[in-house]
């Protein structure tokens, strides 16, 4: 009887991709905070690669606006600027108010998915995993944007993802009392969608993002 072939081993991602994901996740979850200088040697040792893929990954992250490279010194993690905060908040307001209105009447699948994401946020809040909470928070809003059906707005909103996650993690770490308020505000958005009230949903989104703006601006000062 022929011996069954063993499944081929999964090929690990390229070294530069591993460094890229390591550094990017570290910036987003605030293990590498703004103002920290990262060196090629430290990153090569942390990921277990040579310095060449480290340089490639750092160049990629510089083009994304997360780092500033200094030859022979390293890469500076760029702090979130006041202008960046203002730009993200303004774009979120424009996109999210419009799309939450378009999402009414909300399809049952959207309401079910938002309820799942809200429950997930509660679990992360209870366990104290603020990075995971920030990710679920962002997914909650992105699901509404996606359901509205405008693909151009979806792509625009996706471009905000990394900035949103970074600001969200900083906000929750700096204002732990904000966690319960965030969950309550998300519940309010969901309730308005369930009621089929487009104006109430838009008002809930506007109030939520406005309070986020006030706190993030305070945390950035």
SSE diagram, text form:
Elements: H1 15-28, E1 37-38, H2 40-47, H3 51-63, E2 67-70, E3 74-77, H4 82-102, H5 108-127, H6 130-147, H7 151-158, H8 161-174, H9 178-195, H10 198-220
Antiparallel strand pairs: 1-3, 2-3
How does this structure look, described?
- This protein is mainly alpha-helical and 221 residues long.
- Helices cover 71% and strands 5% of the residues.
- It has helices at 15-28, 40-47, 51-63, 82-102, 108-127, 130-147, 151-158, 161-174, 178-195, 198-220; strands at 37-38, 67-70, 74-77.
- A three-stranded antiparallel sheet has the order 1-3-2.
- A hairpin with a 3-residue loop joins β2 (67-70) and β3.
- The chain starts with 14 loop residues before the first helix and ends with a helix.
Going across the biggest sheet, name each strand in turn: 1-3-2
- Spatial extent as radius of gyration: 20 Å
Put simply, the count of helices is 10
Shape: elongated
Report the uncertain regions: none
Termini gap: 72 Å
Q: Report the biggest beta sheet as strand number plus sense, adding barrel if it closes.
A: 3 strands, antiparallel
Structural class: mainly alpha
Q: Indicate the percent of residues in helices.
A: over 70%
Summarize the structure.
With 221 residues, the protein is mainly alpha-helical. 71% of the residues lie in helices and 5% in strands. Helix 5 (108-127) packs antiparallel against helix 9 (178-195).
Any key phrases for this structure?
single chain, 221 residues, mainly alpha, three-stranded antiparallel sheet, 3 strands, 71% helix
């Amino acid at each position: 009887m022929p011996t069954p072939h063993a499944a081929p081993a999964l090929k690990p991602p390229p070294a530069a991709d591993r460094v890229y994901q390591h550094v990017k996740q570290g910036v987003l979850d605030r293990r590498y905070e703004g103002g920290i200088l990262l060196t090629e040697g430290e990153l090569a040792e942390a990921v277990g690669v040579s310095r060449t893929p480290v340089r490639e990954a750092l160049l990629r992250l510089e083009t994304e606006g997360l780092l500033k490279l200094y030859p022979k010194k390293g890469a500076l993690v760029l702090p979130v600027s006041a202008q960046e905060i203002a730009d993200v908040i303004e774009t979120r307001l424009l996109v999210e108010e419009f799309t939450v209105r378009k999402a009414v009447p909300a399809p049952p699948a959207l309401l079910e998915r938002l309820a799942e994401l809200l429950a997930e946020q509660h679990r992360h809040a209870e366990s104290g995993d603020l990075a995971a909470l920030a990710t679920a928070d962002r997914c909650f809003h992105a699901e509404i944007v996606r359901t509205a059906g405008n693909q151009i707005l979806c792509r625009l909103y996706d471009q905000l993802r990394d900035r949103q996650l970074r600001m969200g993690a900083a906000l929750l770490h700096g204002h732990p009392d904000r966690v319960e308020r965030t969950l309550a505000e998300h519940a309010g958005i969901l309730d308005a969608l369930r009621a089929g009230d487009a104006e109430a949903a838009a008002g809930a989104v506007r109030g939520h993002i406005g309070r986020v703006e006030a706190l993030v601006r305070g945390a950035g000062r």
